[in-house]
Amino acid sequence: MIRRTFFATLAGLALAGTALAQTPIQPAEPVAIAPVVTQAPKVFLTTTMGEIEITLDPVGAPKTSAHMLKMFQTNHFIGAAFFRIEPGFIIQIGDLDAQFKGRYPPLSPVELETATNKHAKGAVALARGDALNSGHSSFYFDLADNPYLNADPKAPPNTTGFAVFGRVTAGWDVVEAMAKVELAPTGGPFPGKAPMVPIVITAIRTDPPPPPKPKPAVKASAKAKAKKKR
To answer: pTM of the prediction?
Structure first.
């Protein structure tokens, strides 16, 4: 009796195993991996009229935003004065101080990046000369949508337009107040468009902050040098 029960149990397990073997195994659903999101750098410009926060665009203009961030982090723009104010169009700063003297950075100009960025109200863009890759340190704030400053969609990429490298994310009231100041009749590269009372950048901070400066190499002591000579 015990033997029959044992074989019956084995038969039942065999049948169950066959049934399990015939049941298709459902594939496990893939686990979604969240993309790594890099926070866009921020720049805080303290001016004689208030603070302006700029969020850079490392996606739409990676080379230009990196170029400008380096200059902001090295405090190149402290002492720079706004020299062009055109209400309804732009406000420009970068290359000149309050006496309209040039102040150019040691960095080389940056390649033009205009394929994927647009001049909307509040955008911050790099000025340039007639040469495509001549953008250096002069930049401006768009006071309105300025689509004619965008790249020509019919032209080859990065051959027309001006590179937008960020946008104003706080302190827009300061920018608008600048657009309403009294302008001097003469002076500057755009006569009649410089403010009567200079507007100057007095301090800059960035997020992330500037990288730490490398420590100077430790010079070998006189005793150590004497031992080496032996």
So the answer is: 0.78
